[in-house]
Design brief:
By secondary structure, the chain is α/β, with parallel strands linked by helices. It folds into 2 domains: about 5-180, Rossmann fold (3-Layer(aba) Sandwich), CATH 3.40.50; about 185-210 and about 265-450, Dehydroquinate synthase-like, alpha domain. It is about 55% helix and about 15% strand. The chain contains 20 helices and 9 strands. The strands form 2 sheets. It has a 7-stranded mixed sheet, with helices on both faces. It starts with 11 loop residues before the first strand and ends with a helix. It binds zinc ion (2 copies). One zinc ion binds next to helix 6 and helix 11.
Length: about 450
């Protein structure tokens, strides 16, 4: 789809009836991606009628490097705005939320976040709770989460995902984002790369599990990938070229548009995103710092693509269905493994998968037959995808990690993630489920270990 000819501006709030039969919408008020965008806040506050009084929330590092100057500039322009600077290392938890609430004036109309994922998440949460208009100014382009309504807040020590109000305004300023450490924007490239493998998973889900699919959403995701994974974008990340930063930002915005239209994430989140959740769990257990989301899903995309390479290397004409069916685990065996891998978290997974994960051989046989039935369509889609080697090259060029060990994930953790990362969600379908259904996971993991020279 050509976004220019779609009858509306995707950078403003919009909704439409789609050929797929659903009504799609993108609720962000306005998105501006430009050099100097943050300086235009006074103009947009007026134009979008965000109210009289605002408060800027940022952290010490960002305030020291760019915030102080922008804040002074807004005040010179006559904007009535206060400022609250979060101190030290920030966690998106009750304490930080409380600090922001207590430092927001009673008569504030809108709240502005200037910072990375944590500040943005906290401000979006507080804005919704206090019923304020929300403005986001990202300081680095690490992921597509800046353009969504989702925040992860730690409550009682647990990460809780909240679906909140979308921002009224998003100012993505390439002057600011280009100054971020290039590894942060490289993580954004990882997020774009992840959409490539996610798209393959989503397509397989449509064919094999009748998961809802929309061609317009797919085309929008295609634009994200074409722009964000283009050589000129990737090559400009390390030197911090503004044009490259704007392309990356635009690409990540388009991914968010596609997911907002779809109203869920399967179109942009496949096995690589599930692997990322598992690896974060491993990092937490070892006490090593969590990697950035975009870094993890970039590596995840390499692994996911490697799984697809093994699946599509199968000669389906000669595939021994019964041999694969015989490899179906029995429920008891599987439960034992889930308890060993997930410990305290096991019960909720067993409950979640009670209906979703079948151990019935007849169901398994049916799934395999469906895979074989759709082998040509899968092969066609797969051939249009870059190879795992090509993805590695792109990630390397952008300065993003590409190998699990760069995330401090070892060989055993990788293998475990291949078997069990998929269990934390139901109603999804991806290469991890396919490999299990086809009974090839043992072979797939040893081949991946070899390819990675682990
Ligand atoms: Zn549609
Ligand atoms: Zn993501």
């Amino acid at each position: 789809m050509d976004t220019q000819n779609s009858g509306f501006n995707i950078y403003e709030r919009h909704d439409f009836d789609c050929e797929c039969g659903r009504h799609h919408k993108m609720p962000i008020g306005e998105v501006v991606i430009d050099s100097g965008a943050a300086r235009k806040l006074p103009y947009y506050v007026k134009a979008l009628e965000l109210g009289k009084k605002g408060i800027l929330v940022t952290d010490e590092v960002i305030f020291g490097s760019i915030g102080r100057e922008i804040y002074a500039y807004w005040q010179e322009q006559g904007l009535e705005i206060e400022c609250y600077v979060l101190k030290g290392h920030i966690r998106p938890d009750e304490h930080t939320v409380g600090n922001v609430v207590c430092n927001t004036p009673f008569d504030a109309d809108y709240i502005v976040s200037l910072g990375g994922g944590t500040v943005t998440d906290v401000v979006r949460y507080v804005a919704t709770r206090l019923k304020l208009e929300c403005v986001s100014i990202p300081s680095a382009m690490t992921m597509d989460g800046f353009f969504t309504n989702m925040s992860i807040i730690i409550v009682d020590g647990l990460q809780v995902t909240y679906y909140l109000n979308y921002p009224s305004l998003l100012l993505a300023d390439s002057d600011i984002i280009a100054k971020a450490p290039s590894v942060m924007n490289a993580a954004g490239v990882g997020e774009v790369i992840s959409k490539i493998s996610a798209g393959m998973d989503w397509y397989a889900g449509k064919l094999i599990k009748d998961i809802y699919y929309c061609d317009r959403v797919e085309a929008m995701m295609g634009e994200c990938i074409a722009e964000g994974a283009a050589d000129e974008t990737i090559e400009g990340i390390v030197p911090g070229e503004k044009k490259a930063i704007e392309n990356l930002t635009d690409a990540l915005y388009k991914s968010a548009v596609a997911m907002a239209w779809y109203d869920s994430s399967p179109c942009g989140s496949g096995a690589e995103h599930q692997l990322n959740h598992f690896w974060i769990k491993c990092q937490d257990e070892k006490g090593v710092p969590q990697s950035m989301h975009g870094q993890e899903v970039g590596v995840g995309a390499v692994i996911n693509t490697m799984i697809w390479e093994e699946i599509m290397a199968i000669d389906f004409e000669r595939f021994d269905v019964e041999k694969a069916v015989e490899k179906t685990w029995d429920r008891g065996e599987w439960e034992k493994e889930i308890r060993a891998v997930y410990g305290e978290g096991a019960e909720s997974i067993l409950e979640l998968q009670a209906e979703n994960h079948s151990f019935d051989k007849a169901v398994r046989r049916n799934e395999i037959e469906k895979i074989i039935e759709h082998r040509e369509a899968l092969a066609k889609r797969f051939e249009a995808m870059p190879s795992s080697g090509a993805l590695i090259e792109k990630l390397k060029k952008a300065g993003a990690p590409w190998h699990p060990k760069q995330l401090q994930i070892d060989k055993d953790e990788l293998v475990k993630s291949l078997y069990f990362a998929k269990e934390t969600r139901s109603g999804r379908y991806n290469a991890l489920w396919l490999a299990e259904a086809l009974g090839i996971m043992e072979d797939v993991s040893s081949k991946i270990i070899k390819k990675l020279e682990f």
